[in-house]
Amino acid sequence: MLPKGHVRQGETPEQAAQRDIEEETGVRAHIVVSLGASDKYTFISNGVEVNNSVYYFLMRYDSEEVLERSNPMQSVVWLPLDSALNLLEYPNSKEMLRRSKDALAKL
Predict the structure, then answer these.
(1) Backbone angles phi, psi at 40, to 5 degrees
(2) CB of 31 within 8 A of CB of 57?
(3) Claim: this prediction has a pTM higher than 0.85
(4) Is residue 73 part of a domain?
(5) Domain count of the chain?
(6) Per-residue pLDDT of the chain (107 residues; tens, 9 = 90+)
(7) What torsion, rounded to 10 degrees, do the Cα atoms 75, 79, 85, 91 define?
(8) For 89, what's the count of Cα atoms within 13 Å in the CB-facing half-sphere?
(9) The domain spanning residue 67 has which CATH number?
(10) Domain contains 2
Protein backbone atom coordinates (compact mmCIF):
# COMPACT_ATOMS: atom_id res chain seq x y z
CA MET A 1 0.00 0.00 0.00
CA LEU A 2 1.36 3.37 -0.95
CA PRO A 3 -1.00 5.78 0.78
CA LYS A 4 -0.61 9.48 0.21
CA GLY A 5 -2.71 10.87 3.01
CA HIS A 6 -2.21 14.24 4.60
CA VAL A 7 -0.44 14.90 7.87
CA ARG A 8 -2.96 16.32 10.29
CA GLN A 9 -2.09 19.11 12.69
CA GLY A 10 -0.10 17.67 15.59
CA GLU A 11 0.82 14.47 13.69
CA THR A 12 4.24 13.35 12.54
CA PRO A 13 4.62 11.85 9.04
CA GLU A 14 5.05 8.47 10.78
CA GLN A 15 1.76 8.80 12.68
CA ALA A 16 -0.03 9.95 9.53
CA ALA A 17 1.26 6.95 7.57
CA GLN A 18 0.11 4.49 10.23
CA ARG A 19 -3.30 6.14 10.48
CA ASP A 20 -3.71 6.26 6.71
CA ILE A 21 -2.83 2.57 6.31
CA GLU A 22 -5.46 1.63 8.88
CA GLU A 23 -8.10 3.95 7.41
CA GLU A 24 -7.57 2.82 3.83
CA THR A 25 -6.88 -0.89 4.31
CA GLY A 26 -8.18 -1.77 7.77
CA VAL A 27 -4.73 -3.16 8.64
CA ARG A 28 -2.79 -2.02 11.71
CA ALA A 29 0.94 -1.78 11.10
CA HIS A 30 4.09 -0.43 12.69
CA ILE A 31 7.01 1.24 10.97
CA VAL A 32 10.13 -0.85 10.44
CA VAL A 33 12.23 1.73 8.59
CA SER A 34 11.84 5.01 6.76
CA LEU A 35 12.28 4.79 2.98
CA GLY A 36 12.66 8.55 2.72
CA ALA A 37 10.82 11.26 0.85
CA SER A 38 10.33 10.67 -2.84
CA ASP A 39 7.74 12.91 -4.34
CA LYS A 40 8.10 16.66 -3.80
CA TYR A 41 5.61 18.91 -5.49
CA THR A 42 3.87 22.26 -5.28
CA PHE A 43 0.19 22.97 -5.70
CA ILE A 44 -2.21 25.86 -5.14
CA SER A 45 -4.87 25.50 -2.42
CA ASN A 46 -7.30 28.37 -1.87
CA GLY A 47 -4.93 30.70 -3.70
CA VAL A 48 -1.94 29.74 -1.55
CA GLU A 49 1.10 27.90 -2.88
CA VAL A 50 1.72 24.71 -0.87
CA ASN A 51 5.00 22.78 -0.98
CA ASN A 52 4.46 19.13 -0.21
CA SER A 53 6.61 16.02 0.25
CA VAL A 54 5.51 12.40 0.24
CA TYR A 55 7.22 10.22 2.84
CA TYR A 56 7.38 6.45 2.57
CA PHE A 57 7.86 3.84 5.29
CA LEU A 58 8.35 0.11 5.26
CA MET A 59 5.78 -1.30 7.68
CA ARG A 60 5.02 -4.67 9.21
CA TYR A 61 1.40 -5.49 9.87
CA ASP A 62 0.48 -6.17 13.48
CA SER A 63 -2.27 -8.66 12.69
CA GLU A 64 -3.68 -10.39 9.63
CA GLU A 65 -7.10 -9.30 10.85
CA VAL A 66 -8.58 -6.65 8.57
CA LEU A 67 -10.59 -4.09 10.53
CA GLU A 68 -13.60 -2.19 9.23
CA ARG A 69 -12.34 0.64 7.05
CA SER A 70 -13.55 4.22 7.11
CA ASN A 71 -12.84 4.51 3.38
CA PRO A 72 -13.61 1.02 2.11
CA MET A 73 -11.70 -0.43 -0.82
CA GLN A 74 -13.03 -3.18 -2.99
CA SER A 75 -10.51 -5.63 -1.53
CA VAL A 76 -7.24 -5.96 0.35
CA VAL A 77 -4.81 -8.62 -0.87
CA TRP A 78 -1.31 -9.72 0.14
CA LEU A 79 1.16 -10.14 -2.73
CA PRO A 80 4.80 -11.14 -3.04
CA LEU A 81 6.93 -8.04 -3.67
CA ASP A 82 7.84 -9.05 -7.21
CA SER A 83 4.17 -9.60 -8.12
CA ALA A 84 3.23 -6.22 -6.68
CA LEU A 85 6.11 -4.57 -8.54
CA ASN A 86 4.80 -5.95 -11.82
CA LEU A 87 1.35 -4.46 -11.14
CA LEU A 88 2.57 -0.91 -10.46
CA GLU A 89 2.47 1.66 -13.24
CA TYR A 90 4.09 4.77 -11.77
CA PRO A 91 7.91 4.99 -11.70
CA ASN A 92 8.02 6.55 -8.20
CA SER A 93 5.81 3.76 -6.82
CA LYS A 94 8.07 1.13 -8.39
CA GLU A 95 11.11 2.87 -6.90
CA MET A 96 9.55 2.79 -3.41
CA LEU A 97 8.79 -0.91 -3.75
CA ARG A 98 12.39 -1.55 -4.85
CA ARG A 99 13.60 0.40 -1.80
CA SER A 100 11.31 -1.76 0.34
CA LYS A 101 12.76 -4.92 -1.13
CA ASP A 102 16.31 -3.69 -0.51
CA ALA A 103 15.44 -2.70 3.08
CA LEU A 104 13.90 -6.12 3.74
CA ALA A 105 17.03 -7.84 2.47
CA LYS A 106 19.05 -5.93 5.09
CA LEU A 107 16.83 -6.90 8.05
Answers:
(1) -125, 130
(2) yes
(3) no
(4) yes
(5) 1
(6) 666 677 889 999 899 999 888 887 778 889 999 888 766 778 888 898 888 778 889 998 887 666 665 555 666 677 898 898 898 888 888 888 898 899 999 98
(7) 40
(8) 0
(9) 3.90.79.10
(10) no
